[in-house]
Amino acid sequence: MKVAVFSARSYDRRFLDEANGASPTSPPTELVYFDVALDADTAALAHGCQAVCVFVNDRLDAPALHALAGLGVGAVLLRCAGFNNVDLTVALDLGLFVARVPSYSPEAVAEHTLALVMTLNRQTHRAYNRVRDGNFMLEGLLGSTLHGKTVGIVGTGKIGLATARIFHGMGCTVLGCDPYPSPLFEPLGHMAPLEELLARSDIVTLHCPLTEASKHMIDAAALSRMKAGAMLVNTSRGALVDTTAVIKALKSRQLGHLAIDVYEQEGALFFQDRSGEIIDDDVFQRLMTFPNVLVTGHQGFFTVEALREISTATLVNLRHFIESTPCPNRVNAAS
Ligand code: NAI
Fold it and tell me: Which residue's CA lies nearest to atom 19 of ligand 1?
């Protein structure tokens, strides 16, 4: 069994090779690594492979999926939970096996959410640079005490719950909003409709999936409902937020802080070293000019524990494909 691994970085190779060595398949699985992202133009690299293994910014649209199926590829193994980058209707029509890793250390993303909030609130990123430069002034570093503040969590699934536990433990009032409320949230806070959550929260953090319905859920109207000066955090998917509306809200001071680990057009930027290049994305570049904006490049999941779990679960999914056994992580029309 030959698997083409796209968007492969050194850490993908390390953890996938480790997992492959620890749990060999019969016949043995050969992992072929490609740095490039998968799309209709690069799909041909999977020639001779029976499966492809992809990440968040690989584009499995109709042309890419048709090209893969034409090469005899039978399986798409996602090294992530979200599958908004796969045209599922086409994949299922073509009879492709699509499987994801639904959970890999939700705490990793929740802890990164906390890191973003704490950094932005207490300006530790600026303090670090100042002190290294021999500047010990405190002007401009004023934060607020989070204890007693209200944190609104949009999506109280695995990551939302882990985030709720952290902020509850810090003495914050926690509000949650989810069409399918979890009983596990009950001891941590109160459920509220989105409009109420936006109006009451000092920090709003997004942990729901990107779907047609949730796209741009944080638009100009939602931003105007938020408390003036509140913080918005997005570690979920970029397109949950209308970035142009966010820039307007930052300029008008309605939005006090923005912390994002994901960005609507991140596919053209993230997971690459572009430090020597001119970045053409003017919207992203405008975001970079605000002192109250913090951006990380989709690293919420990036812990040893999560990478180990992603690799192990991906190879278990592959084994289900090889052995035609029921795969609990298979993505189907109802997912
Ligand atoms: P989950 O499936 O456990 O939870 C998602 C929750 O959102 C569910 O309870 C669902 O009912 C709720 N939901 C759906 N639509 C909603 C809406 N319109 N408003 C409010 N709630 C809604 O998923 P999990 O594991 O907690 O992941 C959440 C998201 O985090 C993923 O969809 C993915 O986009 C993102 N993610 C980001 C990572 C990163 O590295 N930054 C890593 C892993 C996931």
Answer: 178
